[in-house]
C-alpha cells in the first residue's frame, strides 16, 4: 500500500510539472528545449544577422580597396590590383613571338 501510494503521488507530481511546463512553453510561443538553448533566437534571425555582417564586411573591403588602405595589409595586398602591380606582372611575363609562315614548329 505504501509503495502504491508513493507511486501515485509521484505520478501526480510529474503530471503537475509537465502541465506547468507545457503552459509555460505555450505562453512563450514554442518549445524551449527544441531550440538548443539559443535564448529564443530563431534560425532565420541568425541567418539574417550573418547576411548583414557579410554585406557590411564586403562593402568595407571594397571601400578599403578603392581608397588604397588595403595595400598596407599583407594579406589584402594580394587581392588588390593597382596599375603598378599590373605593369610589374606584365613585364615579368615572357612574350612568345609567332613563328614565320611556312616554317615548321615541330608539332604534328
Question: How would you characterize this protein structure?
Answer:
- The chain is mainly α and 108 residues long.
- The protein has helices at residues 2-27, 43-67, 83-92.
- The longest helix is centred in the first third of the chain and has 26 residues, at 2-27.
- The chain starts with a helix and ends in a 16-residue tail after the last helix.
- 0% of the residues are buried.
- The mean pLDDT is 76.
Detail the topology: elements first, then pairings.
Elements: H1 2-27, H2 43-67, H3 83-92
| Structure summary, number of beta strands | 0
Radius of gyration: 35 Å
Structural class: mainly alpha
Mean pLDDT: 76
Distance between the termini: 102 Å
Helix content: 55-70%
Order of helices and strands: HHH
What proportion strand? Answer: under 5%
Poorly predicted spans: none
Count, helices: 3
The general outline is: rod-shaped
Largest sheet: none
Oligomer: single chain
What is this entry, summarized?
It is built from three helices and no strands. It is mostly helical.
Amino acid at each position: 500500500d505504501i509503495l502504491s501510494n508513493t507511486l501515485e503521488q509521484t505520478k501526480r507530481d510529474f503530471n503537475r510539472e509537465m502541465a506547468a511546463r507545457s503552459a509555460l512553453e505555450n505562453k512563450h510561443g514554442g518549445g524551449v528545449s527544441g531550440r538548443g538553448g539559443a535564448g529564443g533566437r530563431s534560425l532565420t534571425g541568425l541567418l539574417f544577422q550573418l547576411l548583414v555582417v557579410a554585406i557590411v564586411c564586403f562593402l568595407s573591403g571594397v571601400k578599403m580597396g578603392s581608397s588604397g588602405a588595403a595595400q598596407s595589409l599583407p594579406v589584402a595586398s594580394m587581392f588588390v590590383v593597382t596599375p603598378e602591380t599590373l605593369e610589374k606582372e606584365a613585364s615579368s611575363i615572357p612574350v612568345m613571338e609567332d613563328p614565320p609562315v611556312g616554317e615548321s614548329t615541330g608539332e604534328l
